[in-house]
Amino acid sequence: MSQDDLPSAGRNKRGVKPSGKPTLKTIAQMTGLAVTTISRALNNAPELAQETRDRVQRIAAEIGYLPDRAALRLKTGRTNVISLVLEPDEQIYGFGTSLVTGISESLRDTSYHLVIAPLFRNVQPIEPIRHIVRNRMADGIIFSKAESFDERIRFLIDNDFPFVSHGRSHWPEPHPFVDYDNESYAYGATLRLASLGCKKVSIVLPDSALTYTDHLKSGIERAAREAGIAYEFAADINLASPTDAIRNYVIKRSKRPDGPDGYICASEVSALAILGGLNEAGHKVGETAHVVTKQSSSMFMQFQPAAETVPEDFVDAGRQLGQILLRRIAGETDGLNYIAQPQFSWANKNVD
Question: Where are the residues of the annotated region Disordered (predicted)?
């Protein structure tokens, strides 16, 4: 919107359009309110009338007002910024977008802004965290792919810096996190494959350093033991492997007499590669082989795969991450975690 398009609210008391970079004083001149009132209105101070807050915030948006973050940090020690550290690969297939959507929803009626901090290839994951903390570039940090003994978590705990991780660690100190119950998912998926007649189940695991790798393995081992079936963990590949490598592995493994007839998938991408490999190896998925996978987007079902799915909601995960981080920034220390439980669609189905 150009200044010529501004409504009368976007002009000062003399009807003159503001020029230069808008400031709190600019808005005060336009509204006739004190600068301190403007500041409180922009921060949604509850003691101000909603009409006043709405009017001030509308004018600020119309004239393009942005807070001076350097001045804010000097005055209050706060930046009103939340940093989300993402790898470029995490933007693919909607994971990063879903997290951003959920986090943004949780910050909607606050003074906080979300800033993406990229984690580039060949850069240690701790580096952007150190940079943010040492330069006080944010009031809190969100990151994913938590490892069993994650040095990012150790560093943030030691520096008493607010954060929340997507995934858990094994450090003895409690820390804020949001996670999905991968052990329960793997357990339920394995029992489902056994009920469909599978004699051996397999999974392409995440990187061995990630905490949820242990959770997936524990769930499969426990369920396979109970069901009396065999299991294996795919060798020489993991979730970070190229899809062609996963597909070729499944083709070769399926052609051996002891190959698995059931696969548990920790991601939609690996599921598509596994389904392709099974089909090329001559299996009819849903009959001679079975697949259970997590589903986090509508994209997967567009391929109409013969796989059973269990939803994992990354938008809700983002929402929970934002809410927990706001509580941590506010000084809370207890109950700052959330574990989403898998919902199995086959719970009420009968197996023929």
Answer: 1-23
